[in-house]
């Protein structure tokens, strides 16, 4: 019997977990962010970032393929020793914990700004924490089923972005690469936070039933994310003027304000309420990776206590700090720098170390 049989996930669930980890609140402001750095060639930046992410994910899976049933802690303990491996693993846990908190805080700020302006932030987070705990405590398989269900439930949302396109101007996208590749490359760091999520491969890979399709599933998930970002960005680019889009904090929500029905005026608020389900997929997987890892360090199979402690600490942080939009932006910048290390530097270093480690063992055995 394999170690994680009770929490094994199918290939489809594996795809939806990766895609769900990548798509969060970042999409609401992504068109403005890439327009500020890359102008109307921002969609090219998204395409280039997709290629880089595919390469990074491929390197991660090349490393994990050698140890198919190892969790990240198992791998670190095997490669670096029991205690030193745990010590090296702690910064990665902190990264996932902080990332989950940041997604929660960003979601809370959106809800406060659009729906519950007078409600304290910690109470909004408490409302998030209750269903989050119910999903996280039951393991990855239940979480994967939740993510799959939400994906199918929310398939209708992108189609509503087509309604305002009667006033769109496709010429806003031309000429392509009008200032060369410089602005495109300049905008790449901006997309890191939006594309973050491939690092969950380190944690969900051992639970995949048929691991020979791990790379295929990852490429499908990453491509789904790219197409989603590309679609939303191009719709915003052709609707707004190249300069006008940079004046909007959340151009996607501003775009949705233009959709009106006879029976409903503020359609953007309806979309945002439903979109909370989409964002919840991202914070849930980061929280799960955090509490699963801390439970493993303490050699506990049940992570329910760690889940409740994490969520209580998150509520406490919001109660004490009372984060604002400016603070959330600073956290995003910090996570962007950390994300570049975790997603791009760590996989390469780990792959090189594993190759050297295996060659050393093989030579020693001979």
From TrEMBL:
Name the UniProt key words of this record, in alphabetical order.
Answer: Germination, Membrane, Transmembrane, Transmembrane helix, Transport
- What subcellular locations does the record give? Membrane
Q: Pfam families given for it?
A: Spore_permease
Q: Give a GO biological-process term.
A: spore germination
Span-the-membrane segments of this chain are 12-30, 42-62, 83-101, 121-140, 149-168, 188-208, 220-240, 270-293, 305-322, 334-354
Q: Which GO terms describe its cellular component?
A: membrane
Instruction: Say if the entry is tagged with keyword Membrane.
Output: yes
Classify the protein's membrane topology as the record does: Multi-pass membrane protein
The UniProt entry's sequence similarity note says:
Belongs to the amino acid-polyamine-organocation (APC) superfamily. Spore germination protein (SGP) (TC 2.A.3.9) family.
Protein name (record)? Spore gernimation protein
């Amino acid at each position: 019997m394999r170690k994680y049989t009770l929490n094994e996930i199918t290939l489809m669930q594996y795809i939806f977990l990766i895609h769900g980890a990548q798509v969060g609140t970042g999409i609401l402001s992504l068109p403005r962010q890439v327009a500020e750095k890359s102008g109307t060639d921002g969609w090219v930046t998204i395409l280039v970032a997709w290629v880089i992410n595919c390469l990074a994910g491929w390197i991660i899976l090349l490393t994990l393929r050698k140890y198919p049933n190892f969790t990240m802690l198992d791998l670190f303990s095997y490669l670096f020793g029991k205690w030193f491996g745990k010590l090296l693993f702690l910064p990665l846990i902190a990264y996932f914990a902080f990332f989950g908190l940041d997604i929660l805080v960003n979601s809370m700020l959106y809800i406060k700004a659009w729906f519950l302006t007078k409600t304290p932030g910690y109470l909004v987070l408490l409302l998030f924490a209750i269903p989050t705990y119910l999903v996280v405590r039951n393991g990855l398989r239940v979480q994967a089923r939740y993510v799959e269900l939400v994906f199918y439930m929310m398939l209708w949302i992108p189609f509503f972005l087509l309604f305002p396109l009667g006033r769109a101007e496709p010429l806003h996208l031309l000429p392509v690469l009008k200032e060369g590749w410089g602005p495109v490359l300049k905008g790449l760091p901006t997309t890191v936070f939006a594309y973050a999520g491939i690092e969950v491969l380190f944690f969900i890979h051992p639970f995949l039933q048929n691991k020979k399709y791990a790379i295929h599933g990852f490429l499908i998930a990453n491509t789904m994310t790219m197409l989603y970002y590309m679609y939303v960005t191009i719709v915003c680019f052709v609707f707004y003027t190249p300069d006008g889009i940079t004046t909007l904090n959340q151009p996607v929500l501003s775009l949705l304000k233009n959709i009106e029905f006879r029976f409903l005026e503020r359609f953007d608020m309806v979309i945002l309420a439903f979109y909370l389900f989409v964002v919840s997929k991202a914070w849930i997987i980061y929280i799960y990776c955090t509490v699963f890892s801390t439970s493993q360090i303490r050699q506990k199979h049940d992570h329910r206590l760690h889940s409740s402690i994490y969520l209580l600490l998150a509520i406490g942080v919001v109660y004490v700090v009372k984060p604002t939009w400016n603070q959330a932006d600073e956290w995003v910048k910090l996570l962007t720098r950390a994300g570049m290390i975790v997603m791009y530097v760590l996989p390469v270093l780990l792959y090189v170390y594993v190759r050297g480690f295996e060659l050393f063992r093989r030579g020693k055995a001979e």
